[in-house]
Amino acid sequence: MTGRTGSPLDSTAALYSLRRLLPTNVRARAPALGCVYDRAVASPAIVELARTAVRRLAAAEATANDALDALDRIERVGLGPPYTIALAGDPAARAALLDWLAGDKLFDPARREPDRIVLTLRRGPVTALRARRRDGSVEHRAFDGRSSTAPAEPDEPGEHAPAAPGAPEPAEGAAGREGSGRAAGARRAARQSDADASRSEADRAQTVRASDRPAFRDAIVLSAEAETTALVRTPPWWAVWRRVAMWWRAWRMRRAQARSAALPAPGDDTAAASAGSPAAAAPPPPPPAPARRGFAKLVARGKQLADPRRAFADAITACLADDTVERLFIDVAGGTLPDRVVVIELPSHANARSLEAIGADACLVACGAGGFAMTDQLETALTIVPHVFAVAGGAARPREPRVRSIASLAALPAAMSRIAMIERALAVGAQAVAALAAGAAVLDLEIGRAERGFRARIERLEAKRIPSASYHISKVLDELRPAIVEDAARLLDDAVAVLHTAITELAAAWAAQLGEASSAEALRGAAAQVDEESLAKLRAAQATARGKLSDGLTAHVRARYDALVGELRRDTDRDDPPPDWLHTEIEIIELDAGTELGSVAPRLTSLFRSRDKLRGEAAAQLTERIAALRELATARLRDTERKLEPAVTGALAIALRAELERHETWVEAQLTRERVAIEAERAELTRIARIREAALADEREISSALDMLAAELP
Q1: Confidence of residue 602 (pLDDT cuts 50, 70, 90)
Q2: Which member of 120, 181, 242, 310 lies 3.0 to 4.6 Å from 235 by CB, making a disulfide possible if both were Cys?
Q3: What is the residue-wise DSSP string for 444-513?
Q4: What does the pLDDT read at residue 178?
């Protein structure tokens, strides 16, 4: 492109040019690329910076989906021309601005405004228009009055299905039709008069010409035609209602064209007035047969138009008033419209959300006599483009920071492409800044959540540490001592009951043995036998009671140990069984005398006594001796009561100390393993932290670049 060197826009373009980003050694070896425009304008590096930054943000799993969505939206934006500029505002002022850009009065200020985007104005080799209808047909008209109509093609076997509304037109078909249109336009341009050519050159302001490369012009065409085509193919044989609807639409269009053809042709009023002959006052010929015709058939074939400009302007007005025209593309060869800019008219009643669908880079507002006024449509447009630019001579600058003003129309052509480039970069940069800020916040939350998880894992293990084993054991046993004493007393009572039962059973057996004696001599033998075995059996009864007491105490100790160890092992994978040596032994003083029935049935006195009396005296002596032995055995068993609680607590203390040592070893091993695992996870967390820091740095860099770009806008 050409322009004044040293201007702020030139400095910004150079600052963010792709060549400037190259290292010095690479920049020196970089070949001179044959670009249509300056590299700084064709590939603004701020867009590449935004893409790279958001792509880097997508490397983190937590932000991958949102970053990829933002990257998809950013990558839809091109790197260079053509730039799409929407034109909104007052209808009359908008028509005047379109005329000024086209270099001729082609747009009627009082024309009917559609309720959607229809009109596209762009640079072309010749001034011509192309109307694309809803049924798929395309009609061409050149400024010199020549026209052609391409009907919609019927469905053929193997042909693609009809495109849905908003579906993109195939690139091959669009490029082919545009290629044929360019060839026809070139032939028509060669036949233009020298006067018309000189007038167009005189009216046209200084603009930047594109090269003659076909690829560039194909890019202009393809980008200007937004994917809004809804082709209406010939319906199948069974869709009778669709055929009726198509016939009704065609009938309405033929009637509208017949009424338009019946009116006097624009430009013929002066010729008829100058003729003054009866032939000139004769009524016009009848309209042609009601066949389907385009706007190019508004006047009879044999009649030569006297004012091509007026006919061309009327054709534009008719197309905008025709609901069957889906898109209207106007190529202008003169005027001040830059080559790399495509202007899309935004009617007053159109939804500004459609600017997002057509990929508008900037929005101009043509202001009338009342100056700029913010409308709901412009408020909606400001959600899509960063600024709107009020275009009016001498208009006061609006106070709204999102609204900029261009007071001089003379400065508009040179600034349009630069404004569109900066607005595109601002929009892309704003999307990138929003994505980077949101991604950095998500990563910051992710890092904070991970760090809190690390601390919780270490604190959970640290909480299992026992600072002092002795204090812990003393505290636990002090809490358990009342329960231990109570349980020991209960176990001792159970052991005494077992002892009493055993002694009672022995006494009954011995009494029966004495009662079976049939003589004094047999009685003395039975008593001697009882005396001989009584001591061993009484000691066995003592052992049984002591075993009962020891077993009860051991079970109690193990139950208390399991409860205490279970508290230590909570939320761990430890399941060590209790030690085998964990049991309680109680020592009891054994009996040292038996029944001592040796004086039963003495030989001298037994001669004068009966056997029953002798047996009774022996049984009484046995009962008395058994009572004394029971009392002695019980006393010796109960003498162990003071030893029970120390025995239980001592066994628990020894077992708990060993368990605490094993627990401390396990805690240290778990802490070491957990720290190793956390360090491994922190390696990934460090990568995420680097992505977050890079996102914050990219956000600051892009924001600074956007501030510099925004400062250079009008």
Answers
A1: low
A2: 242
A3: HHHHHHHHHHHHHHHHHHHTT--S-HHHHHHHHHHHHHHHHHHHHHHHHHHHHHHHHHHHHHHHHHHHHH
A4: 40
* pTM recorded for the entire structure: 0.54
Between CA 421 and CA 82 the distance in angstroms is 10
Please give the structure tokens belonging to residue 380: 């909606």
Q: Contact at 8 Å (CB) between 66 and 446?
A: no
CA distance 635 to 629: 10
214-224 helix and 171-190 helix, angle to the nearest 10 degrees: 110
Dihedral Cα 313, 226, 12, 410, nearest 10 deg: 10
Measured between alpha carbons, how far is 496 from 384 in angstroms, rounded to an integer?
Answer: 96
Cross-strand partners of 403:
388
Percent of the chain with pLDDT over 70: 71
CB 282 within 8 A of CB 357: no
Residue 250 has pLDDT above 90, yes or no: no
DSSP per-residue letters across 429-453: HHHHHHHHHHHHHHHHHHHHHHHHH
Three-class DSSP category at 209: coil
Quote the pLDDT of residue 540. Answer: 92
Q: How many CB atoms lie within 10 A of CB 252?
A: 12
Q: What is the three-class DSSP state of 630? A: helix
Alpha helices in 582-640 (DSSP H): 603-606, 611-638
Whether cis (ω within 30° of 0) applies to the bond prior to 82 is: yes
Angle at 361 between CA 119 and CA 113, to 5 degrees: 25
What are the extents of the domains in the chain?
80-155+172-407, 469-663
* Distance separating the N- and C-terminal Cα atoms of the chain: 20
Q: Which residue has the higher pLDDT, 245 or 551?
A: 551
Mean pLDDT for the chain overall: 74
Flag whether pLDDT at 535 surpasses 60: yes
Most confident option among 244-253, 613-622, 686-695:
686-695
More confident residue, 573 or 88: 88
Rounded to 10 degrees, the C-alpha dihedral 311/316/318/322 comes to: 160
For residue 116, count CB atoms less than 10 angstroms from its CB and return exposed for 0-12, middle for 13-18, buried for 19 or more.
middle
Widest distance between CA atoms in the chain: 194
Please determine, for residue 296, whether its predicted confidence score (pLDDT) is greater than 70: no
Look up residue 229 and give its DSSP letter: B
